[in-house]
Amino acid sequence: MNTGRKSSYRALLASGIGLMAGPLAAHAQENGLVINLDTVQIESESNDILKQDGYVARQDRIGTKVDTPIAEIPQAVSVVTEDQIEDQEPRTLNEALTYTASANTGNFGFDSRFDAFTLRGFNAYYNGLFRDGLRQYNSPTGLYKTEPYGLEGITILKGPASSLYGVSGPGGIVNLVTKRPKDVPFHEIELIYGEDQRYQANFDATGPANASGTILYRVTGVARKSDTWLEGYPDDKYYIAPALAFRPDGDTSLTILGELSRSVTGGTAAFYNPSYGQVSDIYNGDPRYNDFTQEQGRIGYEFEHRFSDLLTVRQNLRYSHVDADLEYSGLYDAGAPDLARYWGHYQEDVSTFVVDNMAQFTFDTGPVAHTAVAGLDYTWASYDGAQALDYVSLDAIRNADLAYDGGQDTNQTGVYLHDQMEWNNFNLFLSGRYDWVDTTSHATDYSETGQKDEAFSGRAGLSYRTEWGIIPYANYSSSFSPNIGNVYDDLNSSVSRTADPTIAEQVEVGVKYEIPDANAVLTADYFHITQQDGVVFDASTGINKQRQLDLTSKGVEFEARTSLDNGLSLIASYTHMEMTIDAGAAGTVGKELSGVPNDIAAIWGHYDFQPGSRLAGLGIGAGVRYVGTSFGDDLNTIDNSDRYFVDAALSYDFGALDPDFDGVKLQVNAKNLFDEQKAICTSGYCYRDEGRKVIGSLRYRF
After folding, report:
1. How far apart are CA 681 and CA 624, in angstroms?
2. What is the maximum alpha-carbon separation in the chain?
């Protein structure tokens, strides 16, 4: 029986079964036995660096850089598994994170141009995105776009993580786990149709590339042509991600991961704001001039060799590049009966090279078992931008020359040590790291400003596993992050400066509960984070400008995940938090940071009717997301009302109807089923939520 996540491979096993069938049948006849051969099932995830079972992730190496049971990591960790991605069919990374505790993805309404989200109230999309354990550097506009179909999971490590990963934000990091080669064949074709003329085709193929199985391959692809609810705002994409793994023996592996993609979305997602704190129904964009074209690529590898029980070495390396070309437009009040329009053109290119070298040591000192890591990593990143702005005509902006708009070069080197010690069910984690960052900022007149930053980051955490599956823990951690671009101390001035690095400290206590004899995990935690020199965007002057401020974030999180043998899977999360401004613009000190709701809650359930039921093959899912009230500006003069969003899914596995259709599944997903559309304001500018969207898919696994 194919449950919708697993596929039967009778043809591939036919020869092996045939060889055994004769002797087994004869033995059965002699002994009066009846032999039932179960259908062989396989999942699409590789379970390589992230081991998962349904909606529950059991082991990962992102929290500690070594393979570790997630429940024993003394820090809050959430995981979006591949089964959850398949059941919910997210179109973007933002949508994939919507059921995760402390993740807020709705600050800017509908905007498919970027994955812009916060963790524990802090911006996490510039310095909190990692892919396969390596930082994914994002510039002001050339943000690397994530294709959810290319992932086999998303790990969210909450709170400061610089002690192992270097430059990153106070709220935590989001690590994207790329689909990687498997040692058993897996093939999938999926066709998708949805509202707004959404046509999409996905494919995924993996397995051994040679007879001995020492070379494995995987290739994943997406082709999409789509409109959106905004006029002249497309959502097109072409994506291909090849991967190759060499495993000559059990001690050595080399995995090469690549991607090439091209996307075209709308360049303008905003609506006209007639006054401060108000948003109209008038779309700012000009359908004639509204393409945001982005071409991106990455190539890298993961190498690992085990010398002995004591020593294993790894090197992870990646080069990536983004070319972004943004056409945008807006409306303004020129004092005439009709609104006047301006047009803009912006181009940016970003290149990044990242390499992480580490050695893992496994040894004992008396009764204490150690797993230690020593490492050295290096990041080089560079971006440059050019722009033009015109208030005359569309033809004028199309013919305008682009003027240099500045850029930045960054060189970062970090050394780190980590030791996790186990003794009598106690786990003590100690991590320390020192970073040196050399930043050169280029002004619009090509003048250069250099800045050197360095800092120590640390983490100390302790957990204890009881015999009942309850694991209390506590940790202290810190973060360090030089910032991208310039900031303004006076938003009404044209004078800017290079941003100071952001530093933060966290204290967290919590408890995790692995329910015995059940695939279920419950977590609860309290966190308190203080940040200095954080960077936020402020649109209170009518122009988005970056400024720096000090913040305190504190709150509680609850999360539950389970996938049971009866076909039921559940996710529930709740976050209550408060983020206050300790130092910032005049009149904001002591106020709450805009766009940070005090309460976020979500629950999602999915049920597959089991074999033997009259409804076998049917799958149903439903979820509710709640985003509480917040302020729309840092002066706390704008109020954002709370919002509810309902999602749903319905699927049918045709393999339950006829074995000849094994692997064929029809699925329909609805986002925001009751068409909830409200205004949401952040940093003084107001946006609109996207309404209901329905998507249908037909998938075949073979």
Report:
1. 22
2. 97
d(CA 174, CA 132): 10
279 and 170 belong to one structural domain: yes
> CA-to-CA distance for 541 and 547, rounded, in angstroms?
12
pLDDT at 14: 35
How far apart CA 491 and CA 537 sit, in angstroms, is 10
CA gap 293, 240 in Å, rounded: 17
Read off the amino acid at residue 538: D
* Domain that includes residue 494, residue range: 44-701
**Helices and strands (H, E) in the chain, number of each type:** 5, 41
DSSP string, 222-279: EEEE---SSTT--EEEEEEEEEEEEEEETTEEEEEEEEEEEEEEES---B--SSTT--
* Angle at alpha carbon of residue 513, lines to 148 and 627, rounded to 5°: 50
Measured between alpha carbons, how far is 242 from 217 in angstroms, rounded to an integer? 8
Tell me which DSSP letter residue 555 carries.
E
Residues 529/556, Cβ–Cβ less than 8 Å: no
Q: Are 98 and 78 in contact (CB under 8 A)?
A: no
Q: At 168, is the secondary structure helix, strand, or coil?
A: coil
Interior CA angle at 329 toward 323 and 330, to 5°? 140
Q: Which parts of the chain register pLDDT below 50?
A: 1-40
- Domain of 283, CATH number, reads 2.40.170.20
- Report strand pairing: 118-119 vs 122-123: antiparallel
Contact 209, 244 (CB under 8 A): yes
Whether residue 48 sits in one domain with residue 34: no
The one-letter code for the residue type at 41 is Q
- At residue 4, the pLDDT reads 39
Phi, psi of 617 (to 5 degrees): 100, -20
CA distance 90 to 84: 9
Q: Do 609 and 667 share a domain, yes or no?
A: yes
Q: Strands (DSSP E) along 545-654, which ranges?
A: 545-563, 568-583, 599-608, 618-627, 630-631, 639-640, 643-653
- The CA-CA-CA angle for residues 406, 408, 412, to 5°, reads 175
C-alpha 357, offset from chain centre = 24
Same domain for 33 and 54? Answer: no
CA distances from 578 to 112, 174, 205, 556 (A): 28, 21, 45, 10
Minimal CA–CA distance to 196: which of 671, 676, 679?
671
Distance, CA of 267 to CA of 270 (rounded, Å): 9
Report d(CA 499, CA 511) in Å as an integer: 37
Distance CA 482, CA 167 (A): 7
Tokens standing for 621? 């899912």
Sheet arrangement for strand 118-119: 103-104, 118-119, 122-123
Between strands 129-131 and 103-104, the pairing is unpaired
Same domain, 178 and 280: yes
Write down the pLDDT at residue 494.
Answer: 73
Q: Provide the 3-class DSSP secondary structure of residue 590.
A: coil
Nearest to 96 by CA among 9, 179, 5, 174: 174
Please give the pLDDT value at position 558: 98
Which three-class secondary structure state does DSSP give residue 89? coil
- pLDDT, residue 536, reads 73
Q: Phi and psi for 404 in degrees, rounded to 5?
A: -60, 135
Q: Are residue 28 and residue 119 in the same domain, yes or no? A: no
Provide the number of structural domains found in the chain. 2
